[in-house]
Amino acid sequence: MAHFVLFESASGYALFERLKSQDIAVTDKEVQAAIQDYGRFTEQVILKSFHPFQSAENALDNINHVSEGIMHETLRNYLEQEFQKTKGKKGGKVVLGVFDPKLGSSIQDGLKISCESNDSIHELLRGIRLHFVRFVKEMKSSDLEKAQLGLGHSYSRCKVKFNVNRSDNMIIQSIALLDQLDKG
Asked: 0.70 exceeded by the pTM?
């Protein structure tokens, strides 16, 4: 049985293979130290593949789907492509660790890939997030930060439905009222 972990970042999707399949004790101090140390952490997972988003709009569309627990077509194609290779090599069952159980059930329903989401997976994803730039050699830390900042702003704007071309009159009027009260 092959164990994998899906990591969604602002720059794309990454698939990691779990080398050690036993569960991680979340509270064990030694395990926590192993997650912090890149050398020891690479004994637990390795990067299998990375699929970057094609554009900022594509990233926003994908992350909107992920936040709602829905599998985007980009993610579907990526997982189908990766697990088609894996099923041929390993010849067995594949288990995919995901952070969001709703996304896991969407993947399970759509692709018939067994998914799990538990504390052990969450700890692995925490370590992956910490060391992500080291795993993806062609990515610089500043590139990831820019992608996170840009996607964060776009996602927030989309969720709040804020129009950058429009003045928000209620806020402007409230500030003016506060200024008048301060003067008077």
From this structure: yes
CB atoms within 10 A of CB 177: 10
Confidence of residue 137 (pLDDT cuts 50, 70, 90): confident
Residue type, 160: V
CA dist., res. 106 & res. 66, Å (int): 10
The tens digit of pLDDT for each residue in 71-126 reads: 999 999 999 999 887 665 655 688 999 999 999 999 999 999 999 999 889 999 99
Distance CA 62, CA 183 (A): 49
CATH number for the domain running over 2-183:
3.30.420.220
* Cα–Cα distance, 122 to 129 (Å, whole number): 10
Domain limits, the chain: 2-183
User: Cβ atoms within 10 A of the Cβ of 58, count?
Assistant: 14
3-state secondary structure of 33: helix
User: What does the angle CA 67 – CA 54 – CA 109 come to, to the nearest 5 degrees?
Assistant: 40
How many angstroms separate the CA atoms of 74 and 72, rounded? 5
The encoded tokens of residue 43 equal 């004994």
Amino acid at 53: F
